Amino acid sequence: MTGPVELRVDRDRCAGSGMCALTAPEVFDQDDEDGRVLLLDARPPAGPAATAAREAAGLCPAGAITARPGPEGGQRWSRPTPGGVR
Amino acid sequence: MPQEPVRLPHERAAGCPFDPPPGLAPLRDRRPLTRMRYPDGHVGWLATGHATVRAITADPRFSSRYELMHPPLPGGPDGPLPPAPVGDLTGMDAPEHTRYRRLLAGRFTVRRMRRLADRVERITTRHLDAMERRGPALDLVEAYAHPVPALMICELLGVPEAEQDLFIRRSATVFDPGSSPEEQVAAYIRLTECVRELVVAKREHPTDDLLGDLTGTDLTDEELAGIGGFLLAAGLDTTAAMIGLGTFAVLTHPGQAAALRAGPESADRAVEELLRYLSIAHTGARTALEDVTVDGQLVRAGETVTLAIGAANRDPARFPDPDTLDLDRRATGHLAFGHGAHQCLGQQLARVELRVALPALFTRFPSLRLAVPPEEVPLRVNTSVHGLLRLPVTWDER
Ligand code: HEM
Ligand code: SF4
């Protein structure tokens, strides 16, 4: 499982291709007027949405999506387990 | 290390209708960017590697303007091409390109195109019914591969139903390499005249479709007619070729049809793999606006780079076992729709059409097969979009 991800989009670069909305529909949508990207969730937690968002960043034809490791939110707030594992 | 510039390998091998010209792979395996001699004498480049084609198409220092391009194949004009006609997005750069692209892209979003799935289903069902009534054997291009995308373009543009038949017949002439160049040009002129009349009618009575909507922008009638004609040219022939050639590929690769019948997720994957494997829009071009270093080589301002999309989509560095058609593989990241600011505007429409039309065909006719030996299926040769002229098919009647 990949970790959480933090996303930024550069709408000036966006070409409205829809690759992001196709690949990670929970995270990206497109503006009905000009087709440009709309970021629905800038910090998808670890899980399928984060994985798909990373893939979308790699596919974007215009280099308009940056993805970097997100804050380890899940861990920060998770309680220490008995025995201190992770 | 100086290299002798190569000529563009452009002939496909006999008996390999789906593979790029065999001369490309050895060039790609040696280096993904090669010196190339153009028919007009220009010495530019040939890009054959996936990462290289991707990098060049993503880089705004490479122009798409036709008037800067040296044609890669013999038979073109001696020297650069004429500039893009009004409405032809593929031959423009920012900021003109960006303006058109933003005016249009909102009409082609994933969400909007998904909403068209019902219409594609209705159209495919109607044509499959008609095929069943006619019975085997028939030409799948004329019965299915051409009319389905043609009707979808009509719906998208807002061609009234009464005129759709005429539209389809004219567009068939435009794209039929069997008709003479004069017939093709005449049919195209009549077709753009139809679009122009449509635009004028829609300006008076705006309708809820692409051209109707665009009359509400600052685009002129000439621009609108140009855009309409260009969308027709860019969207019909390509999608029709994918349905025809895609069916041919599935029919000649035993066991592969199952992936198209195994539900939407499997069919979506299968369509991406067919796009990659067939790479029907096989060749692109860009010209450097300034000196750019690519893969450690210096491409000088004014030099044209030919993009061998078919070879890039068979790059073993990107796709394992690239020459095998495997409808179960994840082929996303292919370059069949291009890359960069010009990546296909209609790709989400094409996906919806293919994701409906191909599974529906193989589900309706489980015994579908070629009616002639594969080597007798007539291919189009030397066209910018690879495809076939006819696909004689047959099936068992129930
Ligand atoms: C499977 C079918 C299709 C394939 C393989 C295909 C392929 C391509 C490719 C490779 C490009 C990029 C050209 C370049 O970089 O210079 C492109 C551009 C384009 N395509 Fe498609 N296409 C398909 C279907 C469609 C459809 C259905 C439409 C619209 C109805 C369409 C409209 C366009 C337009 C408008 C452009 C120009 C975009 C720009 O320059 O910004 N295409 N297509
Ligand atoms: S994939 Fe990139 S270019 Fe395409 S809509 Fe999303 S952000 Fe824009």
Tell me what you see in this structure:
The complex is a heterodimer of chains A (86) and B (398). Helix content of chain A is 26%, strand content 19%. By secondary structure, chain A is α+β, with helices and mostly antiparallel strands. Chain A has a single domain, classed as Alpha-Beta Plaits. In chain A, the strands form two sheets. Chain A has a two-stranded antiparallel sheet with strand order 1-4. The model of chain A is unreliable at 74-86 (pLDDT under 50). In chain B, the strands form three sheets. Chain B has a five-stranded mixed β-sheet with strand order 1-2-8-5-3, with helices on both faces. In chain B, helix 7 packs across helix 8 (161-175) and helix 8 (161-175) packs antiparallel against helix 9 (181-204). Chain B has 398 residues and is of the alpha+beta class. The A-B interface holds A 15-19, 21-23, 25, 29-36, 55, 58-59, 61-63 and B 57-58, 101-113, 332-333, 338-345, 347-348, 351. The site of iron/sulfur cluster has 17 residues of chain A, from helix 1 and strand 2.
Task: Give the topology string of chain A: H per helix, E per strand.
Answer: EHEEHEH
What is the top-level CATH class of chain A? Alpha Beta
- Report the average pLDDT across residues of chain A: 86
Specify the overall morphology of chain B.
Answer: globular
What oligomeric state is this? Answer: heterodimer
- Ligand kinds: protoporphyrin IX containing FE, iron/sulfur cluster
Q: CATH homologous superfamily of chain B, by name?
A: Cytochrome P450
Biggest sheet features of chain B: 5 strands, mixed
Q: Strand portion of chain B, in percent?
A: 5-15%
Our count of helices of chain B gives: 15
- Top CATH class of chain B: Mainly Alpha
